[in-house]
């Protein structure tokens, strides 16, 4: 029988810390393999708050290149360097990731991108709708509707016989049902309750398309203050910082 897959929400908030929540980051673990699904600027705080050693993380998987989804990587890398990490690390995401990460590191900590590390760091830029093998997981990236100066991806992840789908940030697109089709879990953005803003998905629009989304379990995340005030009205599950589950 395949190993269980553990999912822990380290951060379930928006970019602005609404409700005191941390930015987007989800830890996926199975059989000793650990992957971070997005790494917002507060991801390292989320890991340490949960008493999870960052050195156990094998892969950081990025949906798109906004600070609340990849801005924690410079802090993660420096922490790893100072704590004498030896375990190799893979950082994977859309085209443009390597250069944007270099720029971020130089802005935050000048010279840090050029320092030789004692652990191998491999950056993988994934092509849309081409499967990428990352250790114990296989990832299929689908391009979605979200401006970030580079392609934005929704991600379909296969690990230990389970399928985990993740919308990243995106306005509604017919791509999302493809990403979520027959998945064990679909983690989907619901930024506002019914207010529609460019390049983001609101809860009402998601519910209008609910019948198109074939998943065993749907959990909304990346919620603004507007959404957090209406959690009791939701017809689906909502993420919260520290929440963990198995699929």
For the record, the count of structural domains works out to: 1
CATH class: Alpha Beta
Beta-strand percentage range: 25-35%
Element order, helices and strands? Answer: EEEHEHHEHEEEEEHEHEHEE
**Low-confidence regions:** none
Under CATH, the topology can be stated as Metallo-beta-lactamase, Chain A
Separation of termini? 13 Å
CATH architect. name: 4-Layer Sandwich
Keyword list:
alpha/beta, Metallo-beta-lactamase, Chain A, seven-stranded mixed β-sheet, 27% strand
Structure description:
By secondary structure, the chain is of the alpha/beta class. It has a single domain (6-235), classed as Metallo-beta-lactamase, Chain A (4-Layer Sandwich), CATH 3.60.15. It has helices spanning 43-49, 67-70, 73-82, 97-108, 175-180, 203-208, 225-228, and strands at residues 6-11, 25-30, 33-37, 59-61, 89-93, 121-125, 132-134, 137-143, 153-159, 162-166, 185-189, 218-221, 237-238, 244-246. It has a seven-stranded mixed beta sheet. The chain is globular and about 50 Å long. The chain starts with 5 loop residues before the first strand and ends with a strand.
Summarize this, please?
20% of the residues lie in helices and 27% in strands.
Secondary structure: elements and pairs:
Layout: E1 6-11, E2 25-30, E3 33-37, H1 43-49, E4 59-61, H2 67-70, H3 73-82, E5 89-93, H4 97-108, E6 121-125, E7 132-134, E8 137-143, E9 153-159, E10 162-166, H5 175-180, E11 185-189, H6 203-208, E12 218-221, H7 225-228, E13 237-238, E14 244-246
Parallel strand pairs: 3-4, 4-5, 5-6, 10-11, 11-12, 12-13
Antiparallel strand pairs: 1-2, 1-14, 2-3, 7-8, 8-9, 9-10
